Amino acid sequence: MRAWVDWGCNGDRPLGETPGDDRSWGDRDGAFQAPANIVASSVMNSGFIGGRDVVAFYYDKDYQYQNGYVCLAPGEKWADNLTDNYFYNRSGQVVNDRIGSHQWVTASGCAAGSWLT
Q: What residues form DSSP beta bridges with 16?
């Protein structure tokens, strides 16, 4: 999983990249560190198909889905402009510049209206 400041999954280098989860993009631990939680504009699912192959991005740290989340399937590969995506369960909250954490889940862990495009 990778994320960039720029749209289109472009830029000199990604904000971070990891095959694992990150419980807080706003701290100084893990692959994604502050200010990643307030600057991510595009994301990529670069994982392998099978098992936990969907990346769930959460509005809050610690994978708190009740305050809003979105999912990115491995077949979709990337969401190149997060300004036109909104958190599921978080009315009207755009995903751009607002990712608090992410984790790998199965597709059954994502609601029908939660998929990034």
A: 3
For residue 40, the tally of other CB atoms under 10 A from its CB is 26
All residues at 6 or more sequence positions from 78 whose CB lies less than 8 Å from its CB, including other chains: 9, 42, 43, 44, 45, 72
Q: How far apart are CA 86 and CA 57, in angstroms?
A: 11
Q: Of 72, 62, 59, which is closest to residue 105 (Cα–Cα)?
A: 72
Whether the full predicted model's pTM is greater than 0.90, yes or no, is yes
- Comparing CA positions, the residue from 94, 104, 108 lying closest to residue 38 is 94
Residue range 37-59, pLDDT digits in tens: 999 999 999 999 999 999 999 99
CA 100 to chain centre: 9
Q: Could you report the per-residue pLDDT of 62-73, keeping only the tens digit for each?
A: 999 888 999 999
DSSP string, 47-67: --SSSS-EEEEESSSTT-GGG
